[in-house]
Amino acid sequence: MMRLAHALRLELILQVRQRFLHAAVFSGFIWLAVLLPLSRSLRPVAEPYILLGDTCIIGFFFVAGTVFFEKQERTLGALISTPLRFWEYLAAKVTPLVLISLSVALVVPTISHGFGYQLLPLVVGTVLGTLLMLLIGFTTSLPFASISDWFLTATIPLAVMTLPPVLYFSGVWTNGLAYLVPTQGALLLFGDAFDQVSLAPWQIAYSVAYPLMWVVALWCTARRMFTRYVIAQSGGM
């Protein structure tokens, strides 16, 4: 646990230096600029989409940014020569970003909407949605040398994770295949938090269990990808 604590402390320092916290605050202001001009009756309608956008930006792009910073500074190769284990390294990386995403997800609706939302589905949806996007962003960034190389390819998983749930939730596309996309669960929980949908018991179970299954699978995939693209060239972690 001491290794994890030290890694978490270092990651927090690096993310502050790399101005990810500043970027999160800025994104919060952007969401408020979108929400506050709307009437109070329209804000709860828009907030589930805003929250999904928050999890995607902070989860998907921020973690990839940290990976490319590490590649640029050549610290990834150095990490594998330390006693730090992979799960400690990745846990230290994603924990601050989950907390940042959760902070934005709580502050923005509270300012725009007051406390007229359900806290539990909002928190669970934010944590699961952010974890999903963090692990996808981390995994997809590992094979690429620079963020410019990664960016175009990254639009594919980003589109897959966002478009079907948004289209289904808005009623534009009603095909049940949208439930195969794990971020559908997060969006349903956001809708429930703002009374935009009434979830059946099976939908609640799906919205928690299915994303968690993906988180476990993506964590294992991230470990294999890290082994292939980092450890295999330098040693072992």
From TrEMBL:
Task: Kindly give the InterPro entries that the UniProt entry links to this protein.
Answer: FLQE3_permease (IPR056926)
Keyword Transmembrane helix belongs to the record: yes
User: Which chain positions lie within coiled-coil regions?
Assistant: none
Question: Per UniProt, which keywords does this protein have?
Answer: Membrane, Transmembrane, Transmembrane helix
Q: What are the transmembrane regions?
A: 20-38, 50-69, 90-111, 117-138, 150-170, 204-222
Please verify whether the record's keywords include Cytoplasm.
no
Name of the featured protein: ABC transporter permease
